[in-house]
Amino acid sequence: MHGAIVSSFKRYLDMSLGEDIWRIVVADAGLTGKTYMPVSIYPDEEMEALLKAAEQATGLRRENLLEDFGEWVIAPLMHLYRAMIPPDADAVSFLVNLQQTHERILKLKDPSAQAPRITVKRCGKGLIEVFYASSRNMGAMIPGAVKGIAGWFHEEVTLLASEPGENGQAHFVFQLKASEVAARQVV
Ligand code: HEM
After folding, report:
1. 174 and 124, same structural domain?
2. Whole-prediction pTM value?
3. Nearest to residue 50, comparing CAs of 132, 136, 149, 146?
4. Residues near ligand 1 with C-beta < 6 Å?
């Protein structure tokens, strides 16, 4: 797992749940003394152990923790990888190209890295379908991350459907539209 995600997970826990939580989480995960840098790659098993320990320490369910983290992490990632965001992008066009974005970022660090398979298709005005498949079983991040992307582009999002599949796969339908606050500022 890319250090941009693991190190962000620490910052997310520090900022939303207090700095003591991380100490408990790394200890429970059997990783005491480990530090995580955004520029390195870490075994997927460490992220999984940290997630499980964070569930225990916070009392939150995996789905809720990942959804909240997914929303939180978008702003730091967008700042970190700003150069990869086309200047004329909106939420839908950014999301439709998400697979390439993930692959470019991962292959920069490790040509053999396996990006999550996240296929995003337009299926009507402002409507997108998202298909997720990854051995990491972190699809619960998606509703949060799409919300984070909508917020970044001053848009509003509604989750219209979500359906779990086998082996951690998942399918979602979202509606995106310009936020009414942003639209009022343009008038
Ligand atoms: C600028 C925006 C984004 C950047 C830079 C980014 C970057 C990354 C990186 C580096 C990873 C680690 C992958 C690995 O090490 O294997 C990751 C994981 C992930 N990202 Fe993104 N991401 C972005 C936006 C999104 C969005 C919008 C979504 C959802 C629609 C998303 C969903 C996920 C998921 C679910 C994972 C967990 C890995 C997995 O399930 O296999 N990301 N992302």
Report:
1. yes
2. 0.93
3. 136
4. 1-2, 4-5, 77-78, 81, 98, 101-102, 105-106, 113, 116, 118, 134, 136, 138-139, 141-142, 145-146, 149
